[in-house]
Design a protein that fits this description.
By secondary structure, this protein is α/β, with parallel strands linked by helices.
C-alpha cells in the first residue's frame, strides 16, 4: 500500500466537505428541498463555505500528516480547522452575505450539521485507511501474539507502539492487571485477566512475548513474572518509565529486553538527599579511578548535587576521555575537569591537591582483578596500598573534609593479593583517621565503604558471560558451588554517597548485599534470557578455581561484628584497630621493597600483619606454613 501524497489527502478532504455540505442540506430538509431560496443557499452559500474550509485546511495543515500513522494530534488539527471555519462562516460570512443580499448564506442548522458530519468523516476515513493498512500488512498467519502486563495508560500506549511496528507484526491478545476494577472487562477490544492467571495463560497459549508495562510494580513481583516467562520459554520485555520516552512518545525500540540486572535488582534505595546535597553542593570533589565503572558512576551521581567543581582523575586515557564526553553532554552547565595522573606518583598527586584543593575525595582507584593481581603482587601492593597512602596523606595535608575509601568484601579474610592489599589500605586509612583526630581540632574524616561484586563492572562475570553467549559458548564457570554477592553499580555508588555523608571518621561501612547467588545459576539464567536452551544451543564448562579465588565471599570476618545505622542497608563493621606508626612503617617497607621485585618478601609482610590472610589455590600458599 503506497503512501498518499499531501495533494491527494487535500483532494479527498475537499471531496468530503462538498459531500458533507450537500448531506447537511438534505438532512436539514428531510431530503425534500421546498423552496427556490434554499436551492440558492446550496448554489451560492456552499462555494463560500468550501473556500473557507480549504483556507482553514491550509492554515492548520490537516493534509500534512502521514495518513497511515494518524494520531490524536491529527484529529485535533482537523477539529480546530473545521471549528474555526464554521465559526467564521456563522459570524463574518453570514453577516457579510446578509448585508449584500438581504438573507443569510447558510442557515445555522445547516452549519451545525455540516460541522458534525465534516469532523466525523474527515477523521473516520483516516482511521479506516490506517486500520486497513495494518490488516493488509499484518496477516493473521505470521503475527506474533503478545501479552501485556499492566492495563493502565502505559499498557494502552504499549499496545499502540507494538501494533504500529509493521515489520514485526505484533498482535496484543491479552492484558494482565491486579486492579480489581478491570475484572471481566476489555481494553481496546482485548480481554483483561487477573494477574494470578498469568501462569495458566502462559502454559495454555504460549505467547511469543510478554511486555511488562507497569512501572509501579514491585521489584519482587517483576522478578516473579520474569521467572515465570523463563520457565515457559516466553520472551520478556520491559517498558521504560514515561520520563524516558522520546518526546513523550513510546516507540518499539524503547521496549527493551529484560537483562540479568532486572533479575537481581532490589527495591530502590532511599537516600537522604538533603544531607547529601548539603555535603556536596558548591564543593570541589575529587574522584580517583574516575574512568572505572565505580568511579564514573560516582561522578554521574555527584553531579546531580551541583558541586562547584568535579575533578576526574585516572591514568586510563581512553575511558577518561569517554566519561568526559558523556558528562559534557549530560551536564553541560556543570563544571568538571579531567586529570590524567597515577595515584602512585607523589609529585603528580601533590600538584593535583595543590591546584584544586578538594573538599571531598572519593578514592576508587585500585587494581581489582583477582587472578591478574595474584600474578603481579608488586603492582597490586604499590597501587592499592602505596597509592592509597599517598592520596590519604595528601588529603590530611590539604585539610580535605572527608576521604571516602572504596574497598571490597575481598578484604574480609583475604585469600588473594588483591583482597589483602585492600585490607592493608583499610587499616592504613582507619589508623590515619585515629591518629590525626587526637592531634588536631580540625581533621580529615576517613571513611571506608566495603561491598561485593557489582553487575557490569570491569572484571565482572556478567560482561564475560554475555560475550561467551554471543559467540556461541561455551560459558566458563569456575566451580558449580561458587557463590557471590551482587549489587548494581548505581546502587553501590548511592550507598557510597550515603555512607560518606553519615560518616564521622574511622568507620568501615558494610553494605547489605542481599542474598548470595550461585554463579552457575546466574549463567543458566543468562542463557534462558538469551532465548537459548542449555545443553542444546550452548554449553557450560567448569574450569576450576583460579589463583586466589574462594568459593564463598564474606562481608565480615568471624571476629568482626556489625552495628546498625539509621539506613537499613548500611552497617558499621567493628574491626581490630592498629597502631598508625606501626602501619606507616609497614606501608613504607612495602613501598621500598617494590624496587627489589621480590614477590615472596612482599607477600610475607602482608601475611605477618594481616594474620587472617590465607592464600587459596595460589603459589603463595607455601608461605602460610
Amino acid at each position: 500500500m503506497q503512501q498518499i501524497s499531501r495533494w491527494g489527502i487535500l483532494i479527498i478532504d475537499i471531496g468530503i466537505i462538498v459531500f458533507s455540505m450537500v448531506l447537511a442540506h438534505l438532512l436539514r430538509f428531510n431530503f425534500n428541498m421546498p423552496t427556490t431560496d434554499d436551492y440558492d443557499n446550496l448554489f451560492y452559500g456552499t462555494p463560500v463555505m468550501i473556500a473557507v474550509r480549504i483556507c482553514s485546511f491550509f492554515i492548520f495543515k490537516t493534509y500534512a500528516g502521514i495518513i497511515l500513522h494518524t494520531s490524536i494530534e491529527d484529529a485535533q488539527r482537523i477539529f480546530w480547522a473545521v471549528l474555526s471555519g464554521s465559526i467564521f462562516m456563522a459570524t463574518l460570512g453570514n453577516l457579510g452575505f446578509y448585508y449584500s443580499t438581504g438573507h443569510f448564506a447558510l442557515p445555522y442548522s445547516i452549519l451545525i450539521i455540516d460541522f458534525l458530519v465534516s469532523i466525523f468523516m474527515l477523521t473516520a476515513y483516516r482511521a479506516l485507511v490506517k486500520i486497513l493498512y495494518i490488516e493488509f500488512r499484518n496477516g493473521k498467519k505470521d503475527k506474533k501474539f503478545v501479552a501485556v502486563y499492566g492495563a493502565g495508560e502505559t499498557g494502552i500506549t504499549t499496545k499502540t507502539a507494538l501494533e504500529r511496528d509493521m515489520g514485526n507484526k505484533f498482535s496484543v491478545n491479552a492484558f494482565f492487571d491486579n486492579n480489581t476494577n478491570y475484572r471481566k472487562k476489555r481494553l481496546l477490544g482485548v480481554p483483561i485477566y487477573p494477574a494470578k492467571f498469568l501462569e495458566r495463560y502462559l502454559l495454555a497459549n504460549q505467547p511469543q512475548l510478554l511486555v511488562i508495562a507497569d512501572n509501579k510494580i514491585s521489584t519482587e513481583k517483576k522478578q516473579n513474572i520474569i521467572e515465570l516467562c523463563l520457565k515457559y520459554n516466553v520472551k520478556v520485555r520491559n517498558v521504560p518509565p514515561v520520563d524516558k520516552w522520546i518526546n513523550g512518545e513510546l516507540s518499539l525500540h524503547q521496549i527493551k529486553e529484560i537483562k540479568i540486572d532486572d533479575l537481581l535488582e532490589r527495591d530502590p534505595i532511599q537516600l537522604d538527599l538533603e544531607n547529601i546535597e548539603n555535603q556536596l553542593k558548591n564543593k570541589t570533589i575529587l574522584i580517583t579511578g574516575a574512568a572505572g565503572s565505580i568511579g564514573s558512576e560516582i561522578a554521574r551521581q555527584v553531579l546531580r548535587f551541583h558541586p562547584k567543581l568535579l575533578v576526574l582523575l585516572d591514568q586510563a586515557e581512553t575511558p577518561l576521555y569517554q566519561i568526559d564526553i558523556e558528562l559534557n553532554n549530560t551536564f553541560p552547565h556543570l563544571k568538571h575537569e579531567v586529570v590524567i595522573a597515577d595515584i602512585r606518583n607523589q609529585e603528580r598527586m601533590y600538584n593535583v591537591f595543590k591546584s584544586f584543593r578538594p573538599d571531598i575525595v572519593y578514592h576508587a582507584a585500585a587494581y581489582k582483578h583477582v587472578p591478574m593481581m595474584e600474578d603481579n603482587p608488586s603492582e597490586a601492593i604499590l597501587t592499592n596500598v602505596g597509592g592509597t597512602s599517598i592520596t590519604a596523606n595528601l588529603a590530611t595535608e590539604f585539610q580535605v573534609e572527608k576521604f571516602v575509601f572504596v574497598s571490597t568484601d575481598k578484604a574480609v579474610n583475604p585469600t588473594n593479593i588483591m583482597g589483602a592489599s585492600k585490607r592493608m589500605a583499610e587499616i592504613y586509612v582507619q589508623s590515619l583517621n585515629k591518629i590525626q583526630s587526637h592531634n588536631a581540632n580540625t581533621f580529615t574524616k576517613f571513611i571506608t565503604t566495603r561491598f561485593g561484586n557489582v553487575l557490569g563492572s570491569n572484571g565482572s562475570v556478567i560482561p564475560l558471560f554475555k560475550k561467551q553467549i554471543a559467540s556461541g559458548g561455551p560459558i566458563t564457570v569456575t566451580h558449580p558451588k561458587m557463590t557471590r554477592y551482587f549489587m548494581t553499580i548505581p546502587e553501590a555508588c548511592q550507598l557510597v554517597l550515603e555512607a560518606g555523608c553519615m560518616g564521622k571518621g574511622g568507620e568501615i561501612y558494610v553494605f547489605d548485599m542481599g542474598k548470595s547467588i550461585k554463579i552457575f545459576d546466574l549463567a543458566k539464567r543468562m542463557v534462558r534470557l538469551s532465548g537459548l536452551e542449555l545443553g542444546k544451543d550452548i554449553q557450560i564448562s567448569f574450569t576450576g578455581l583460579r589463583p586466589g579465588e574462594k568459593l564463598y565471599e564474606e562481608l565480615l570476618n568471624p571476629a568482626e561484628t556489625s552495628l546498625p545505622t539509621h539506613h537499613q542497608k548500611i552497617m558499621i563493621a567493628t574491626v581490630r584497630e592498629y597502631d598508625f606508626e606501626q602501619i606507616k612503617t609497614v606501608v613504607n617497607e612495602l613501598t621500598h621493597l617494590f624496587g627489589q621485585q621480590n614477590n615472596n618478601d612482599l607477600v610475607k609482610i602482608l601475611k605477618k600483619y594481616i594474620p587472617e590472610y590465607k592464600s587459596n589455590n595460589s603459589i603463595f600458599e607455601e608461605l602460610d606454613n
